[in-house]
């Protein structure tokens, strides 16, 4: 097995595994599966569920965006997974930022979570610009 194949399998496998493990709250509930996050249920439940419900979707569709075969053979599917990725990052990033401001994990952890949310939110314009650029100049789209 080539190194590229191993790296691709690891990327897909880890993204999907982390996404599936992140949805453990669907079966176990937030209090049991994420006890350190349960304090957000009082007053910030919508932000919590938006973050922990949508971020795994972003992780699950991310590998598809790097799949050259999908991009060349099914460009419509590639664009739709990109749109799903962009929307889930936007909503989850906003929700994550609001959760970071009120975390019980301490100021250093809160700053780290907030910076991660900002990094996610800075990525959304890249997705929008890519969509606009490709629609404007389809001949220059990556193959």
Care to give the gist of this entry?
By secondary structure, the chain is mostly helical. It is built from 7 helices and no strands.
Q: What structural keywords apply?
A:
143 residues, 7 helices, mainly alpha
Quickly count the helices: 7
**On the 0-100 scale, what is the average pLDDT?**
87
Percent of residues in β-strands: under 5%
* N-to-C span: 25 Å
Helix content: over 70%
What characterizes the major β-sheet?
A: none
Oligomer: single chain
Total DSSP E strands: 0
User: Outline, from the CA principal axes?
Assistant: globular
**Helix/strand structural class:** mainly alpha
Give the SSE string. HHHHHHH
Rg calculated over all Cα atoms: 17 Å
- List the uncertain runs: none
Estimate nothing, just give the exact number of structural domains: 1
Describe the model.
It is a single chain. The protein has helices at residues 3-22, 25-28, 30-33, 41-65, 68-73, 75-100, 107-136. It has one domain (3-140). Helix content is 80%, strand content 0%. The model has no long low-confidence stretch (mean pLDDT 87). The chain has 143 residues and is mainly alpha-helical. Helix 4 (41-65) packs antiparallel against helix 6 and helix 6 (75-100) runs antiparallel to helix 7 (107-136). The longest helix is centred in the C-terminal third of the chain and has 30 residues, at 107-136. The protein contains seven helices and no strands.
């Amino acid at each position: 097995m080539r190194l590229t194949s191993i790296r691709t399998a690891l990327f897909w496998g880890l993204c999907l595994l982390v996404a599936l493990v992140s949805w453990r709250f669907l079966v176990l509930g937030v209090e049991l599966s994420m006890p350190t996050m349960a304090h957000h249920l009082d007053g910030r439940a919508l932000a919590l569920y938006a973050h922990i419900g949508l971020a795994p979707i972003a992780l699950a569709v991310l590998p598809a965006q790097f799949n050259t075969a999908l991009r060349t053979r099914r460009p419509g599917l590639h664009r739709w997974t990109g749109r799903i990725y962009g929307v889930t990052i936007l909503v989850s990033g906003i929700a994550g930022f609001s959760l970071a401001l009120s975390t019980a994990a301490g100021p250093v952890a809160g700053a780290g979570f907030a910076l991660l949310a900002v990094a996610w939110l800075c990525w959304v314009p890249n997705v929008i610009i890519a969509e606009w650029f490709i629609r404007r100049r389809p001949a220059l789209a990556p193959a």
